[in-house]
Amino acid sequence: MKEYSCTMPMSTEHKVSQNGQVYLTPREAAAYLEISRTTLWRYVSYHRLPAIRVTPRKVLFDRRDIDRWLRKRREVRR
């Protein structure tokens, strides 16, 4: 089973809200998950991965939601 790293170097792209939540762009989320952007969009379209639609053309991912999603996947695979 592939082990996922939950640390990511900070870049200038992702957004941090006032309460400290980290939001990732699709490119960052795909890199964080070590998957292609095509796979990322497939997961979003099948409602497997939570995403936040900010505008009709802009989507962000809450890093805490991604971490929860990863933990659930690990539990199911055990």
Topology:
Layout: E1 15-16, E2 22-24, H1 26-33, H2 37-45, E3 52-55, E4 58-62, H3 63-77
Antiparallel strand pairs: 1-2, 2-4, 3-4
Helix pairs in contact: 1-2
Number of helices: 3
Sheet/helix structural class: alpha+beta
Beta strand count: 4
The N- to C-terminal Cα distance equals 10 Å
Uncertain runs are: 1-12
Order of helices and strands: EEHHEEH
Mean pLDDT: 83
Amount of helix: 40-55%
- Strands of the biggest beta sheet: in what spatial order? 1-2-4-3
Can you summarize the main beta sheet? 4 strands, antiparallel
Percent of residues in beta strands: 15-25%
Gross morphology: globular
Task: Write up this protein.
- This protein has 78 residues and is an alpha+beta fold.
- Helix content is 41%, strand content 18%.
- The protein has 3 helices and 4 strands.
- It has helices spanning 26-33, 37-45, 63-77; strands at 15-16, 22-24, 52-55, 58-62.
- Strands 1-2-4-3 form a 4-stranded antiparallel sheet.
- Strand 3 (52-55) and strand 4 (58-62) form a beta hairpin.
Summarize the model shown:
The chain is an alpha+beta fold and 78 residues long. It has three helices and four strands, in the order E-E-H-H-E-E-H.
